[in-house]
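How it folds
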Amino acid sequence: MTVDPLKSAANDELSYGQLFAVLWRRSLWLVGTFGLIVGTSMLITLFSKPTYRSSMQLLVEPNYQLGLKRNNERNTYRTDRQDEVDYATQLNLIRSYQFMEQALDRLKSAYPDLTIKEIRKNLTISLLEEGKVETKIVEVVYTDNDDIKTQRMLEAIQEIYQDYNLKQQKLRLDKGLALINEQLEMLRQELSSSQQQLERFRQNQNLIDPEEQATTVAEALEKVLQDQREVQAEYRDAQAKYASLQQQLALSPRNALIASRLSQSTRYQELLNELQKTELELAQNQVIYTDITPRIKSLQERRQKQLELLQQEMGRVLGAEASASGESLLTAGQLSKNDLELAQDLAETQSLLAGLAARQRSLAQSEQQLRQELNRFPSLIAQYDRLQPEVETQRIILEKLLEDRQELSNDLLRGGFNWEVVEAPQRGEQISPKPLQNLLLGAVIGIFLGTIAAFTREMLDNVIRSLEDLKQQIEQPLLGTLPALSSLQPHHRWPFQAAPAVPTIQTLLHPKFRESLDLIYKNLQIQNPGKLLKSLVVTSASFEEGKTALVLGLALSAARSHRRVLVVDADFRQPAIHQQLGLTNHQGLSMAILELRSANDFIRHLVIADAEIDVLTAGPAPTDPMRLLSSQRFRDLMATFTEHYDLIVVDAPPILGLVDAIQIGSCCSGFVLSARLHQVTRSDLAQATAMLSSLNLVGVVANNVKLAGGNSGRTTESRALAVSSIPSEPLRQIPPQIDQR
């Protein structure tokens, strides 16, 4: 659902208007309460004793606080500097009985009547705040009727507080130094024990730093493994070469070695050459000579000697390996240059294989030793990691405690602390009474309480003051409003000058009043579109609510619409139609009921501003109005009037407390209730509408409504109002003109 902003703004303005209207109506209550409060505040200001206020500001901040905390995880101690101060304790100390008693002792001679209770009552202590953050500055305020007394009291409190804090701070530092000394001794013992354990560990294990040595061993092991891989590769290459050389020589490695060595021996080669020559010569001679010849025997002996020499030389060259027979000596050592080189390579390769095999064995042994050494390091490192950090931690804590001890010692030598007075106490300033402030405060409170009084009186008021209140009280339609007479008066008069009395007939013909009546008459027709209202009873909840003016106004509006209209004054209690029209009341409705003459004898025909109406006044007041109104004659008259007129408007007595209106309404088509604002009460209106709801209450007309724009001036028509027959004389002097229709 959407809300019209223009309508909402209008409702807000209307609400504000209602508020101001309430304040205007109850201005006496507002002004009276305002004057009472302001007067009371001025009297209090005049008769109050002057009060003085003195203050001082102290920076309550020690140079430091030392706290020792135990580290439960490592069973060590550490120190923390803290800049926090328990300000609540400091404030309570200043308020304490001990401080107050000392201040009282210092000022007792000058102020013998001073008591601790009075000091506490007049003393205010608080922390200064910057924005919403508390500062470290304490403000002490003392109030009294003596300006010098306020200053002296704060000076005494300042001295007492500073002396106390200096003593307490020095005491705390002394205790802190003693505690540090105690901790130092304990830490020294623990550090010595830890260092001895670490020293024994290094001596027993022959280690300085297990981690570094484990790293060194691991690197050495990695180097050995790398060497093993390289030696294995070289060994495989040498084996392949050895097999190839052995295949090329077709000799065993031993024979190849022997042949190589013998081939390299010069003497062996010379002896071998001589032996070969001898054998050649022997072979040549054996062809010629027999074996028994001396020459053959000589050659054989020479050959044998040469073999022995060759055998000896082989033994010298080969040593223990010299086992060749005589025949083999001829072939041993007789290698070609190429075979000799191959034999040398084979020998070298064999030597290389032997060397590589020996190196492999050495590297394997080194690997085994290194692995055994490395396997014992984890436990050593764990033990070292437990001992070394403990020693380092204790050494750091010891150094820290020594530094803190030195700082505390220096502070004690310097006197320790600096308690700064930010603002010294001054002679007290007067804070009360303050006439202007009290006057303004009284004015504010007066306006506030006056407004409350005005609205309280308004809430207790049962009278309906506005159209909005009226609409909330009724369920029937509001046919229209009639402006208040004050809204129709000219504004060009002196202030407080009473408005001149205006005849009701002239008021009815005022343009604004006439337009309101025309609207009411039109609403009557709209509210009852399918029903012809030929007779209407106009009544009210009580007297003086403007029902007579409404009766005449409706009659004139209907007459201007070319309707035949009859106005009947049935209010025998307080008849008013004849007075408003300036007619006599010697005969009227009461006589028409009692006498058997024709009703036309009592009806008067009037022409007012070109509107023709017939009027039946009340006539002489009967002793029992109810007997006349309940008679058959009255019902017959109303029936006759209904047949001859288009509209009959009956002025009836008020509905509350009288049964006349109900009796009259039983002979008519419906009721119209006139409600006068600022007069009718909510209870009366509710009771009246409840009684008329079952009797065809057509609607309600609000009377005495103040116009927002006021009166813009009287028209020519309203200034020349009169009955058309004799314009210059009152209506009561005009003889009645009876229409003989």
Summary: Residues 178 and 405 are 9 Å apart (CA to CA).
